[in-house]
Amino acid sequence: MAMSDETMTGGASGSAKAAPVPKGRAAAAGGKSTLGQAVFVILLLGALALPFIFKNFTIFQMTMLMVYAIAILGLNLLTGINGQFSLGHGAFYAVGAYTAAIMMENLGIGYVWTLPVAGILCFVVGFLFGLPALRLEGIYLALATFALAVATPQFLKLTPFEHWTGGVQGIVIIKPDAPFGLDAVLNADQWLYFFTLAVGLFLYWLARNLVRSRTGRALMAIRDNPIAARSMGVNTSVYKATAFGISAMFTGIAGCLGAIVIQFVAPDSFTFALSVAILVGLVIGGVGWLPGALLGAAFIVFIPNVAEEISKGLAGAFYGFFLIAVIYLAPQGAGGLLRALVAKLGR
Amino acid sequence: MNAPMRQAATAGTPVIAVENVTVRFGGIVALDGIEFDIHEGEILGLIGPNGAGKTTLFNCLSRLYTPNDGDIRFNGTSILGEPAHRIAGMGIGRTFQNVASFSNLSVRDNIRVGAHSASRSDPVSDALRLPWVRKGERDIDARVQELIDWLELNEVADLPVSGLPFGTQKRVEMARAMATEPKLLLLDEPAGGLNHDEVEELGKLIKMVRDEKGVTVLLVEHHMALVMSVSDRVVVLNFGRKIAEGTPEEVQKNPEVIAAYLGGDE
């Protein structure tokens, strides 16, 4: 399975007396992976400069890229790290999105507060879904989560909830302006971009810490050999349900951010196609490799547009072609390909 | 209720007391009233032809199976009420018949997972990397490094387990089991798949575990030479019953044991 030196070994970083990671650089690879650190710094500088170079539409696209990256990161914690499948993460994304919409537009609460609420709510929903899912393995779990994805848009349309959800019409959200007088410098798009970037970095830091911790090792142990994990004292049920909760939390926060950025939620934005898109992003980026989320998100944001530019009528076919091409050329996702290249250049 | 009292009262309480353990699978009696003790600091060999019930008994001890009848006491306390994941924390470590490594993880991380039950953390503190978590990780790392040195795994410590030779993987499993800080170590056919030299190494290792770490060992094994050379006492099963118990010399002379093995798989 795809694993990186940066996110997975912990062996390299943990044992090397892990020099306390400075907060701001937290997402950089630890210990001896200087290449990873260099790439991280360059990416971060690029990300900071981007909103001042490009137009609003590109900024919007890049913001959505980060939103999807967070959603994929969440799925990666479940599938890549803990070995549980989900074809239903669009449902958690939807719960997060509606949490933001309802809190902001119906209750008049500031958008910043919607993130922790969506996170906690989705953790609870994910954990509760994870409990019965304990009995399901592999493709059966995939089917159960598929059912979740298919059912969610229907629930959002139900008449009894219409007062809150807006029914089929959905809810329009007003885009927040930059706070603290920053609105003189940054327009709303730029501000949301930086806000998403900050949230994304923080969540990445959490995910990376988690993977390298006792909890993360327990999750990976369950993925690799559940019976042996249990014999080592890992309470597999609790950890698997918790993994579902944490995963749903990440994806829910992504949905929350996505709703604010798009300024609109409606049931048909959260169909099964969204769940599949998140899964595609995970596989393209590299299952089990956390930074892969960015590459996977880039694929699901940009490749449909590229396909459409090639041919309006055959956009779907070209998208499929790109997908197959990537899987064929990089069976372990972009992460696996990059690491193979680095290994080749390094030797 | 009176278990702790009993434990305190009798210094000679066996580490493990297997009491009248019976396991039935449908109509088949896999274990029939098995009784024996394992004493502190002892290496007990458990042998028997194929289908004798060794693995079934082993799985009872590690709580993967629950006996239909009888009891298993660890230091005087029944373990049958505990879930499987609590067993390591009680002080019973184990290895698996055909290595059950966490194959994508490095050797070091495999051993770190072994330290799971002997350490504490929660997902929130772990995600935030709180100071007490970092201290806990340093403690785990120190313990793990000690085991890596002890079992001479330094060269492969940061490689994924999946690519390592079988014999090395078995040592990793041993290190992982030792990281649970066991008082009793259960070894499930550790010699399986090893060549002659490796079996000899294994014998030394088992003695080291007992002599240097003071761990009591239950060795379930096919390999007669190994069992006879390292065990203090041997228990022999056949068709789910105990047919002999004694020193290796006594057991080897026992006519019932000889009969059980004649024409058997050895």
TrEMBL record, chain A:
Transmembrane segments: 35-53, 59-78, 85-104, 110-131, 138-156, 190-207, 241-266, 272-302, 314-331
Molecular function GO terms recorded: branched-chain amino acid transmembrane transporter activity
Subcellular location: Cell membrane
Main location: membrane
GO cellular component: plasma membrane
Superkingdom assignment: Bacteria
Keywords: Cell membrane, Membrane, Transmembrane, Transmembrane helix
A Pfam family it matches: BPD_transp_2
Membrane topology, record value: Multi-pass membrane protein
The name this protein goes by in its record: Amino acid/amide ABC transporter membrane protein 2, HAAT family
Source species of the chain: Albimonas pacifica
Automatic annotation (TrEMBL), chain B:
Keyword Disulfide bond: no
UniProt keyword annotations, A-Z: ATP-binding, Nucleotide-binding, Transport
Entry's Gene Ontology cellular component terms: plasma membrane
Pfam families to which the protein is assigned, alphabetical: ABC_tran, BCA_ABC_TP_C
PANTHER family named in the record: ABC TRANSPORTER ATP-BINDING PROTEIN, CONSERVED COMPONENT OF ABC TRANSPORTER FOR NATURAL AMINO ACIDS-RELATED
Organism classification: Bacteria, Pseudomonadati, Pseudomonadota, Alphaproteobacteria, Rhodobacterales
Gene Ontology MF terms in the entry: ATP binding; ATP hydrolysis activity
SMART domains, A to Z: AAA
Keyword Ribonucleoprotein: no
Domain (ABC transporter) ranges: 16-264
InterPro entries registered for this protein in UniProt: AAA+_ATPase, ABC_AA/LPS_Transport, ABC_transporter-like_ATP-bd, BCA_ABC_TP_C, P-loop_NTPase
Name assigned to this protein: Amino acid/amide ABC transporter ATP-binding protein 1, HAAT family
CDD domains reported for this sequence: ABC_Mj1267_LivG_branched
